[in-house]
Write a structure and sequence with these properties.
With 267 residues, the chain is of the alpha/beta class. The protein has helices spanning 7-11, 30-33, 46-49, 61-73, 93-107, 121-129, 145-148, 158-174, 186-195, 216-219, 236-252; strands at residues 19-23, 39-42, 79-83, 111-113, 134-139, 178-182, 200-203, 211-214. The protein has a single domain, classed as TIM Barrel, CATH 3.20.20.60. The protein has an eight-stranded parallel β-barrel with strand order 1-2-3-4-5-6-7-8, surrounded by five helices. β6 (178-182), α9 (186-195) and β7 form a beta-alpha-beta unit. The protein starts with 6 loop residues before the first helix and ends in a 15-residue tail after the last helix. The chain binds 3-methyl-2-oxobutanoic acid (KIV) and sodium ion. 3-methyl-2-oxobutanoic acid binds at residues 23, 41, 43-45, 83, 180, 182, 203, 213, 215. Catalyzes the reversible reaction in which hydroxymethyl group from 5,10-methylenetetrahydrofolate is transferred onto alpha-ketoisovalerate to form ketopantoate.
């Protein structure tokens, strides 16, 4: 039986064949994704795409644990990374350790992800030294949507680019095993990838990153408004509408259930 990929294996792929990843949140989609990617992120984007929230700020540890468990249970090959939700790690390295330990112990995931650059470096080092592989996340960090003034691309002036590059270097030096680079101008994503020693996982970044990630609901066509950086690889939303509409019609016509769907008495 195949063994799950590990954080060190992902880290070792810096500069190699691109690392493939997607988010997944449940036991319906995660097993379909599992054999085809290198890691699965149980992202706090689930608050928006699975729970109808308008940001990720309302997602808590219990919700991440519930979805993380579902994904770990229903997969066998991919590394599973679970997002640390807003409010569960920022206050101190100790608070972050307690939250990360719960995520790992209660879900069985192999790594956690947190948002932040230089200001989270101490926390990343604290977790890494205590056996918790940490993926960092720089650029457009959705938990900071209120401070950033919206979900908008980052790195449009030299000072912003210098700050984000500094963030990526800081998390790499602090011991993160990989870093998500989200929503930044392509030349910056390329410079970060050349500069840091850990794999960069791009989303709205550049094909030069060491890997890519997308929110699965977006790429499958299950969400109606998507940012410019999303490519739709499927039309699953349309497929669902068609199936539900066919079902509704057949129920109304009493065409479903048919003979083969009903039980007949044996005697
Ligand atoms: O929550 C999420 O889905 C993420 C990815 C988009 C990187 O953080
Ligand atoms: Na996230």
């Amino acid at each position: 039986p195949a063994r799950r990929r590990t954080a060190p294996e992902i880290q070792a792929r810096k500069g190699g064949t691109p690392i493939v990843s997607l988010t997944a949140y449940n036991a319906a989609f995660a097993p379909l994704v599992d054999p085809l990617v290198d890691f699965i992120l149980v992202g706090d984007s689930l608050g928006m795409v699975e729970h109808g929230m308008d940001s990720t700020l309302g997602v808590g540890l219990e919700l991440m644990i519930a979805h993380g468990r579902a994904v770990v249970r229903s997969t066998a090959m991919s590394l599973i990374v679970v997002d640390m939700p807003f409010g569960s790690y920022e206050a101190s390295p100790e608070a972050a350790f307690r939250s990360a330990a719960r995520l790992m112990a209660e879900t069985g995931c192999g790594a956690v992800k947190l948002e932040g650059g230089a200001h989270m470096a101490e926390t990343i080092g604290f977790l890494a030294a205590r056996g918790i592989p940490v993926m960092a996340h720089v650029g457009l960090t959705p938990q900071a949507v209120n401070a950033l003034g919206g979900f908008r691309s980052q790195g449009h002036d030299a000072a912003a680019r210098e700050k984000i590059l500094g963030d990526a270097v800081a998390v790499s030096e602090a011991g993160a095993f990989a870093v998500v680079v989200e929503g930044v101008v392509a030349p910056l994503a390329e410079e970060i990838t050349r500069t840091v020693s850990i794999p960069t996982i791009g989303i709205g970044a550049s094909s030069a990153c060491d890997g890519q990630i997308l929110v699965i609901n977006d790429m499958l066509g299950l969400t109606d408004r998507v940012p410019r950086f999303v490519k739709r690889y499927g039309a699953i939303g349309e497929a669902v509408s068609k199936a539900v509409s066919d079902y509704a019609g057949e129920v109304r016509e009493r065409a479903f259930p048919a003979d083969e769907h009903v039980y007949k008495p044996r005697g």
